[in-house]
Amino acid sequence: MTVKASLAELRVFVALAESGHFTRAAERLGMSQSSLSAALVKLEKQLGTRLFDRHTRSCRVNEAGAALLPAARRLVADWDHLFADARDFARFSRGRVTVAAPNAQCALLLPPAIRAFRDTHPGVRVVLHDVPEHEVHALVRSGAADFGIATQTDARTDLMGTALSADEFIVALSPEHPLARRRTLEWAQIAQEPLIGYLPGNPVRSLLEEKLAERGIVLSYAFEIALPWTMMGLAREGLGIAVVTMALRPLAQWHGLEIRAVGRPQIARTMTLLRAPGNSLSPAAAAFRELLLGTQKKLAA
User: Fold this and answer.
1) What are the Cα distances from residue 221, in Å, to 78, 190, 241?
2) Is this structure's pTM higher than 0.70?
């Protein structure tokens, strides 16, 4: 098998693993669904194992696929970086910056920064990996992303982190909810209500629960949700109070929800910029990173 064919098939593998859907993966790669399926079958035949559990139009990586995915991402990223660096390393007018971040940051934090960056560096392409927060570390560690945005935790990590911003915990609730009449709330009050929160194990939820446990406060969730858009929709219909952070305030307001600060205690998470030690940033990536840090510093001032 030629190097070109191997790379094309690895791209199919990575795109399908990240999208979980044949049609979306084909659209992302600019190829037909039949060509994508054929490339996957060829790769699985040469590897001697199936990589996905298939359903009608969707799929999910199986045990073998999950084990091979980090190496495939690294190979594709290394190949892309090789050509990008050879062509653009000394030409700051062109280049590529790859950022991994949770969907909320990709939707609300990064677009204004990307627009400002492209105004001054129109030839630099910014690539976003819109992924669940627990996947950000893996993408940065493997080199698939130049840097990532994630919640700072006490867990030990081999990645280098730089504080980006403070993000206060708040609640979003329907204007008709009785607690919406109050200007400020306390966590002891919130704990008595049906809540809408992130899935167990989510770093944002884990941090909040650890801080509240120090005060003997335990939250009870009526809904445990992966995506903030779903959380806001449930809160809009009066099905509970959404426990989120200030980063989601624009989304909550778009849904017509009331935002309330919560005290006793007031809790905030720290968002960090992560990068792998020993991996130097390209001039373009370093410039975008400095733009993000500078923008957040101005907002905090």
Assistant:
1) 43, 11, 9
2) no
